[in-house]
Design brief:
The chain is of the alpha/beta class. Helices cover 52% and strands 12% of the residues. The structure holds adenosine-5'-triphosphate (ATP) and magnesium ion.
């Protein structure tokens, strides 16, 4: 029988598809136990959602309940409150009769609109009236705290794609209120993270923003070389295929230990290899990975101004700092020094580059590979 491909890339990974991150998991669990708010920031697809899910599964118990809210499709305050109430109810009691009891007890001023399906335990949907919600916003935000106190439990509210809050109407005022209510809670803590790296940095790392210093800020690192090596080797061996250490190092280097791409490239190599990974298999898989992502990269690059493109060309050819210096501006045709500053800010907010200690780098290692091939 043919074994299934042991690599996965896409949304969250769990079980034995999840590797390493032991220290990060411990830190999250400790924060949850101690009621400490946590913020997780990293570039796209390094493994934030998987990590939080992992820690949540480990800690979820009678005494500590995790309510998970995904703001992926949430754009308004009303949608936010509705989902917030739902996930908290679902996390703290399993029967919908009890949900109603809790609502009656703790949200006295609000009359929910309830739709119950054929199987009430699974198709139970709640709706609220905007005016009622607006009038009682603080009460809603305090719902987990009230439930926690009355049940003698603790609640962790985990919120993915939190940066969507920035597109709400009057977002700043809303953020201020959230913070002021949430930070007074004793039995409830929050874990906030999201896939938009730059927006998350703006929300949490700017002194003027309401959520500045809201909690333990984790800059999630990459999974280590040793852990990836073991992970890849084992998955090949367990499915009757062999991969030499040389190719494992190549995978790790070519995609710069990026979680999603390590899995994608390994997936493609595994698929192509009969029983043994050869240099031809490797090359084909690498080409496939680049072309599978190429459409996206083309779109990002097509409309770029020529100075922006020149800036990226400089980075791709190894020049990583002092690009606003006179010589560099002339050599790479970057316009003016002031223009370079603008370009940098654009590329930062578009999440194409990152700057650490003045060193500029591509955020997406496969975009860099593609760029070197097609543009440089
Ligand atoms: N601990 C891990 N072990 C193995 N693979 C992982 C791990 N974490 C992430 N990955 C790989 O990266 C992919 C993306 O993971 P995940 O969705 O958790 O990242 P994310 O940081 O939440 O992404 P986004 O920024 O898009 O929200 C997974 O599908 C998987 O291929
Ligand atoms: Mg995610």
């Amino acid at each position: 029988m043919k074994a299934n491909n042991p690599f996965y890339f896409g949304r969250m990974v769990k079980g034995n598809l999840f590797t390493d991150r032991e220290k990060d998991t411990e830190r999250l669990i400790a924060n949850f136990k101690n009621g400490l708010n946590t913020i997780i920031i990293s570039p796209r697809r390094w493994g934030k959602s998987s990590l939080v899910q992992r820690a949540s599964e480990k800690i979820n118990s009678d005494k500590i309940r995790v309510a998970s809210l995904d703001m992926f499709s949430i754009r308004t305050e009303l949608e936010f409150y509705t989902e917030y109430i739902k996930v908290i109810l679902v996390a703290t009691s399993s029967k919908w009769e009890e949900h109603l009891k809790i609502l009656k007890e703790f949200l006295k001023q609000i009359t929910p609109k309830i739709t119950v399906g054929i199987d009430p335990d699974h198709t139970f949907s709640l709706g609220f009236d905007w005016d009622e919600v607006k009038q009682n916003a603080k009460e809603i935000l305090n719902l987990p705290e009230k439930i926690a106190k009355s049940k003698g439990i603790r609640i962790v509210v985990s919120i993915d794609e939190f940066q969507n809050i920035a597109v709400f109407n009057e977002s700043l005022a809303f953020q201020k209120m959230l913070r002021s209510v949430w930070q007074r809670q004793e039995e409830t803590c929050y874990c906030l993270y999201g896939s938009k790296f730059h927006m998350m940095q703006e929300l949490f790392e700017r002194q003027s923003m309401p959520f500045y210093r809201f909690g333990d800020l984790i800059h999630l690192g990459k999974i280590g070389e040793k852990e990836w090596t073991e992970f890849i080797k084992e998955r090949f061996e367990n499915t009757g295929k062999h991969i030499d250490d040389v190719y494992i190092s190549k995978i790790i280097n070519d995609v710069d230990k990026h979680s999603y791409y390590v899995q994608q490239l390994s997936h493609l190599i595994w698929e192509k290899a009969d029983t043994e990974v050869t240099s031809m298999v490797y090359q084909e898989a690498l080409d496939d990975m680049i072309s599978q992502n190429a459409l996206l990269y083309q779109r990002d690059t097509e409309l770029m101004s020529s100075t922006k493109l020149n800036f990226l060309k400089a980075i791709a050819s190894g020049v990583k700092q002092n690009l606003s210096g006179k010589n560099m501006v002339a050599k790479y045709k970057l316009g003016t020094s002031a223009n370079v500053v603008k370009i940098k800010n654009h590329l930062l907010s578009e999440e194409i580059i990152d700057i650490q200690n003045k060193i500029v780098s591509f955020i997406d290692p496969v975009y860099e590979l593609w760029f070197k091939r097609e543009i440089l």
